[in-house]
Amino acid sequence: MGTEQLPVSGDNFILTGDAASLVDPFSGEGIGNALYSGMLAAAAIENCIKDNRYDAAFLKEAYDDVLYKRIGDELRISTTMQKLCRFPWLFNFVVNKAHKSKSLSNTISCMFTDMDLRDQLRKPSFYFKILFNR
Ligand SMILES: Cc1cc2nc3c(=O)[nH]c(=O)nc-3n(C[C@H](O)[C@H](O)[C@H](O)COP(=O)(O)OP(=O)(O)OC[C@H]3O[C@@H](n4cnc5c(N)ncnc54)[C@H](O)[C@@H]3O)c2cc1C
Q: What domains are there in the chain, each with its CATH number?
């Protein structure tokens, strides 16, 4: 998935999990988002039945908007991270530094679950801090 948010529903249909391209592009994990999107899809379908509306405009509000509000930031950060992998020298630099620094390796481990921490990887200041051991 790109940084733009792809539609995950339309007239009379809802996509969840892999079908909606919800695999985290950086970690490759998709089970959590598949389950989560399934739960949100069920809630959206309940609203569809209640209002007897199954059109794209209704589903976008009932499902796409809710889903991306919850996991959109996470997917955006991971997409940026995936793009950073195109610069192997940068990743080698970070991994070599982490190999020598226990606190940096702990920080990177925590980035798998802490989105605010992971967002640091998008900022040049993060790399400057590593470069100058701050
Ligand atoms: C090698 C590998 C390792 C992975 N490791 C991890 C991991 O460690 N952690 C993690 O979070 N994610 C991991 N993932 C990703 C994760 O498996 C998927 O993101 C997740 O399973 C998606 O769930 P889903 O329900 O959307 O799709 P799926 O799990 O693919 O389920 C879709 C189901 O629909 C069935 N189906 C397909 N077509 C039809 C049809 N016409 N009629 C009826 N049934 C149909 C399929 O047989 C399948 O059972 C891994 C993926 C791969 C390929």
A: 1-85 (3.50.50.60), 87-134 (no CATH)
